[in-house]
Amino acid sequence: MNFTSHDVIIIERALRTAMKYDRDEHRSRDYREVLLKMQESAEQALHVNAQLASADHDGIRYDYDDSSDLM
């Protein structure tokens, strides 16, 4: 299942609201765990995207000339 950034924001907001108003400690702990997992996942995705972006723009351009095969 793919979530958009907007979906993630809504889910995080719902989890924070649930943590704030739910007085059951067990459920509140569950909400907190899910929220932390989402945040860690988002941080990892940002890190991977940053690495991919820097790899794409390494300043080296590779042009392959296949005309040597024509001789």
Structural write-up:
There is one protein chain. With 71 residues, the chain is mainly α. The chain has one domain. It has helices at residues 5-21, 25-56. The longest helix is centred in the middle third of the chain and has 32 residues, at 25-56. It is rod-shaped, with a radius of gyration of 22 Å.
Key terms:
single chain, 71 residues, mainly alpha, 69% helix
Briefly, what is this?
The chain is an all-alpha fold and 71 residues long.
How would you characterize the largest beta sheet?
A: none
Helix fraction, binned, reads 55-70%
Low-confidence stretches: none
Overall tally of domains:
1
N- to C-terminal distance: 52 Å
Taken from the alpha-carbon principal axes, the silhouette is rod-shaped
Describe the protein's topology:
Blueprint: H1 5-21, H2 25-56
Helix pairs in contact: 1-2
